Amino acid sequence: MPLHPQARTFLATIGSDEGTDYDSLTLEDIRRTRALPDQVALHRGPLTTLPFVRDEVAEGVPIRIYRADPGDALLPVVVHFHGGGFVHGSVKRFDATGRFLAARTGAVVVSAGYRLAPEHPFPAAADDAWTVVRDIFARPAFYQSNGTVAVAGEGAGGNLAAVAAWQARDAGLRLAHQALVCPVLDAAMELPSHREFAKGYALRSAELAWLLRCYAAGADPADPRLSPLRLPDVAGLPPATVVTAEYDVLRDEGEAYARRLAAAGVPAEFRRWDGAVHGFFGLPGLFDQAAEARDYLATRLKEAL
Question: Does domain 5-304 have CATH number 3.30.870.10?
């Protein structure tokens, strides 16, 4: 379908990428432009008041723990990995998402502050993600966990969630679910959506390639820690929910991942938001579709937990 009117307005606001040479931009340029001014940051959603929000550390990785239940009952845990192309983004920037997930799922939400590239290239972020997941299984009492754990992430965070999911499988740790929003799953960038939406649709192909170069630092794109879509065997992975946007370079790899899981007997469901662009999910104040997508994902997680 055509671009959603709100997507057209958003794209006009952020401007054209025509002629942008990402290799000429500094890291500070990228992080500053992606930080979003205060008035836009407000569109990330309300900061839901919770009885428990605390910053902690999981084996050296900064985390923020959210809990909507004021008591001391043991609860499921959702580990959330923020987006930002492996180069920008933070727990603070995605604070509204962590609060929303805790309130809507009833789970303890653990938001992971993984290391960013290029200062910390691959596999630093994947290692940090796995460290947090492993720590939750190792110290359930600390997290007030009942032993049921799921992973969730957006963009680059979706990549980290998917990688942690197969690492948990291989380590004999059972995850209840993996919830992936417009995830980066194939560093080779070879599927048709990368060509179809290369320019003018929020996440540009040239920008994504630059971000992946910062993170991969020359690593083989076939490495499943970098490209979980290329994992040789997906049987036995946790059930999955994948959210995609129609006008997103990452659309095809997210949907291919869900189809591949289903073909291997893994319960998997993807839902495409027609007319939407990359990043819509995290901006419910700008996109009406975001509220629908967030409710869908939270419902799927709650059912799985």
Answer: no
